[in-house]
Amino acid sequence: MWEKIDARPVPAWFGDAKFGIFIHWGPYSVPAWSPAGTYTEWYQRWWYSNSIFGNNNPQANAIPDFQEKTYGEESSYYDFAKMFKAELYNPVEWAELFKRSGAKYVILTSKHHDGFTLWPNKEAQNARFFPWNAAEIGPKQDLIEPYMEAMRDAGLKAGLYYSLYEWYHPWYQERSEKFITHHYHPQFKDLVNRYAPDLIYADGEWNDEDSYWHSGELLTWLFNESPCNDDLVINDRWFKGSRFNHGGYYTTEYDAHAVEGERPWEEIRGMGLSFGYNRDEDIEDYNSPKALILMLCDIVANGGNLCLNVGPSADGKIPVIMQERLLQMGAWLNVNGEAIYGTQKWKKPFQWSNGSREYNFKEGKAYIEGDYILKQTVDPIPGKAVKEVFFTTKENAVYAILPKWPGKSVVIRDINPKKGSKIKLLGVNSELSWTKSGNGVLVELPDYDPAWELSDYAYTLKIEVR
């Protein structure tokens, strides 16, 4: 069964897209708080288990203490559903923002590990005996249908995240087959039959083998009987041990390492260190636009996609700093997108300087922070090599993306364009002079002109290699 599923090629649109948007939104968006460096969407787990993990050495009792102080000792996580109103939710505005960011696809959390669904689903109430979906409590509307319509009207691929497990569902806690036969499978089918998404991002698979999940059976239904067509994309999170081994594209999370092999892959991360909106994150916790742009270049040079998360507040508004970051990325992609979209990994992803290439960005941390790419480029660690150039390729061109303005000239190594080939700086309408230099080329750059509509996040040379 899995051999057949694994043999199914990942639709080409996904590998060409390169840049997507993740959206974490649900009852956890009401408190919207956990210690900076931790996941706010795990609020229920942090609270009920009196434990937590993340960067910055969070205190185990941080969430229980915050909950009691803010909402009272008799409060319940399930109260947040009533407070999750989504009164300012406007998916058309979301779609316009995402389109302007340069993203090509979007993934919305249809159900996270707390089990709350953003669509009217009867299985959400299984064994709970109280409303636990957005159509019956809180917003009292289907939040997914207008999202799907708005994204598609904007020309974006519309995906849905779905958690296989639920932390405190009685049937799952008992590892009852009833959770599979009467909850997971029928709920998943309801989601797919209603909305026929372009992409499904599964998660929460890690505790159980497929002998429990029976995800292979469900995916056989998905690809043979569901309304989704051949362009449907799935990821690799379907049972314990399936990541990087089974399913569709491979997934990393707050990582800084490429996935080897020919399989498409995607890195997901927030603009800070949370997926859900976190009120404890300050400006220094957010990645700069330069870091985000260089991160995108780094991942694409390694053949991957970046799916960057936004966390709307409970009312449905995307925080202004997140809007700003997306628009900054979009402005850069308007000039340099040719070097990103539809490209492939070149024979080498980077041009390194001299020095050690060994980095350990995760030492003492749960998650690799976004400044890793600054340390590998423009803010070097003494004695370490830096990535001087990112490479991508498409058709008859190699794109050399420079993290900083090199001055009067730059040497691009290990490339041999033919005589008469053109080299251009994207965003500047003039050809550059170049000569062969050793095993590469020396490219002469014009004096920098402030009138150019370029950002200082990164600069791209287009090199013909006919």
Automatic annotation (TrEMBL):
Molecular function GO terms recorded: alpha-L-fucosidase activity
Domain Glycoside hydrolase family 29 N-terminal: residue ranges: 2-338
GO term, biological process aspect, one: fucose metabolic process
Pfam families the UniProt entry points to: Alpha_L_fucos, Fucosidase_C
Residue intervals of the Alpha-L-fucosidase C-terminal domain: 387-464
InterPro entries: FUC_metazoa-typ, Fucosidase_C, GH, Glyco_hydro_29, Glyco_hydro_29_N, Glyco_hydro_b
Signal sequence segment: none
Keywords assigned by UniProt, alphabetized: Glycosidase, Hydrolase, Signal
Record's GO cellular component terms: lysosome
Enzyme Commission number(s): 3.2.1.51
Family: Belongs to the glycosyl hydrolase 29 family.
Function: Alpha-L-fucosidase is responsible for hydrolyzing the alpha-1,6-linked fucose joined to the reducing-end N-acetylglucosamine of the carbohydrate moieties of glycoproteins.
Name of this protein: alpha-L-fucosidase
